[in-house]
Amino acid sequence: AISADGEYIAAVSADGKGLYLFQEAPKELAGKPTVQLLGSGSILNEVIRAQGLLAEMGIAAPVWNATGYLQLRRDALEAGRWNMLNPKETPKRSYLEETLGDVEGPFVATSDWLKAVPDQISKWVPGEMFTLGTDGYGRSDTRKALRRHFEIDAEFVCVAALSRLARKGDVSLDLVTETIKRFEIDPEKANPIFD
Questions:
Q1: Are 92 and 75 in contact (CB under 8 A)?
Q2: How many helices (H) and strands (E) does the chain have?
Q3: Cα separation of 13 and 72, whole Å?
Q4: Could you read off the pLDDT of 134-186 as tens digits, one per residue?
Q5: Are 113 and 90 spatial neighbours (Cβ–Cβ below 8 Å)?
Q6: Exposed (0-12), middle (13-18) or buried (19+): which is 183, by Cβ within 10 Å?
Q7: Which helix (H) or strand (E) holds 107?
Q8: Which residues pair with 45 in a beta bridge?
């Protein structure tokens, strides 16, 4: 659904479980370095824009719509509890583990909320999940400026994705630093959590 101001509003996934693949990476990027992008609500617009920017750099970035982080957490906790209380039975896997179990990471989750919101599922995400969120204080005259302040716009999503890929050795550190310069990101800017 689209809001009156043109922002994408996340709908509940077709299966109602809290996460679904919203948009695959372009097919021509098959076999290229891959990072999974998670977004929810109106920030999904920035995540989709980041997917396009990364594609220009030869990076595959499927976009996942996380419609219910708490729902995903509760399901994962329930599976863990059942497994603890039924040690002789075949262990159950949570929806999150089933959905992402064979998905190649790393993962970057971006939220208009505090990082703690997506972080609540990180334990069950395979590999590494890096989170961007609105921790700290900020005032701005536009949503665009506020997202830049909190480091959650498409450009920061790209930098986060590239930095995770560089840690894996899939892209060069030079690409990360060049992208920071290209997007006019100031590495010396105060962290919003303290600003």
A1: no
A2: 7, 5
A3: 12
A4: 998 877 788 899 999 999 999 999 999 999 999 999 999 999 999 999 999 99
A5: no
A6: middle
A7: strand 107-110
A8: none
